[in-house]
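G.,

No rush on this.
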Amino acid sequence: MGILSLITGKAGASGFGSASTAEQVTDGVDASRLTVIITGGASGIGLETSRVFALRGAHVIIAARNTEAASEARKTIMENNPAARIDVLKLDLSSLKSVRDFADQFNSMKLPLNVLINNAGVMFCPFQLSKDGVEMQFATNHIGHFLLTNLLLDNMKATAKSTGIEGRIVILSSVAHTHTYPKGIDFDRINDEKRYNDKMAYGQSKLANLLHANELSRRLKDRILKSNNLSIMSLTLLTVHYNEVKGSLEEGANITVNSIHPGLIMTNLMRHSYVLLKVIQVATFILWKNVHQGAATTCYVGLNPQLRGVTGKYFADCNVEKTSKHAKSDELAKQLWDFSEELIRSAQ
């Protein structure tokens, strides 16, 4: 969307634009059969996303580091929507152990999983390492979500297969993915404190979010194609095993993965550069959104039926948006995937 559309709120091809709210883009949607996990669902955009998903009938799991704040958020939502179904589970994305504990706890609840919203993050924080020895913005914004998604993927596949309802993974990236280090992802210097720039490190983590979405989407599609080839051969040779092969065909076929830019919203995420960003906000006030508008693209991509089957795209203001050159690189996306897997293995 161009600057003029952003300023005026003019709707794009989707029928929605920068002025649309999360309630508007999900109007008429019945999510009562859905279970959704929302990381960072207790404040800011995540809280509004939790509220609107619950409003549409979904069973919402708020995954949060601060469970007290999350419980208060749950209470606030239920005061206005007593029928809301909301649970709170602890998740610290900067800790791989916490991510694994969360996945184990969720899976032990024997709940289905239809939608995963990777929303939580940190922004512009001073240099520090996570408990696993990884630069904090990269660890929290990308690595934690990368592991979480992988650990929950089998549940999502099983849910999509048993219910026939398309699963959706929404990964919050940002327009900041365009402002990163020259190589895009500086794999050899992730933890280099001397070279650390809080803004570029944030952009690097947001580029990683976008590349993660693209690569996971590609891998799921490739799996479908391989399953198609396998099923054709098997049906030709052994038609008696049709049902078993049909299951193989459907594995992974009904999950979409997309990334989004929510827009400019003043939330707690910006606490490390609050004064600077407040000055910028005053100077560019016409470009900023309120939280109801800020959660719109997340809710649109996560719930709106007109996006059925759409995968591997990047959205802003509820419309498909262009990305940077680095974000278009399949090679960089594959390299990031391998790097992320190895980093997680080495941290064990």
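When you get to it, here's the other one too:
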Amino acid sequence: MRNYFENDYTSYRFHDDVLHIIYHQGVCIDLNAAVQIVKDRLLLQEGVSLPILCDIRGIKEINKSARAYLAMEGSTLIKAVAVIVEAPVSEMMSEFYIRTSNPSIPTQSFENLDDAMVFLRNFMA
């Protein structure tokens, strides 16, 4: 499995059996971006289901179709998601996503990386 990859929207890195996805600073995510993000993630995972740490603090904007895609098709091969947020903007964005998109996998927001990793340890094989 490749350890690092980057596209126009995110960087992906494996660390401690968790895939870390970090959104670039100031990105706007539409449906096309969401499709690319999921496609690249699935290629990196090579069919292996993993817990995901997703740092969304860099997202400037994400539209409804992108949120819906990430909640459904974007859940493929994911055991759980810990979302790293920063109050108030990305925290509100994450809570809105969780409330309205109702992701099919365990998803929780954290302001602290250590707390997020404690949550994800419950989903490691």
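DSSP finds four helices and eight strands in the chain. Residues 3 and 13 are 6 Å apart (CA to CA).

Enjoy the weekend,
O.
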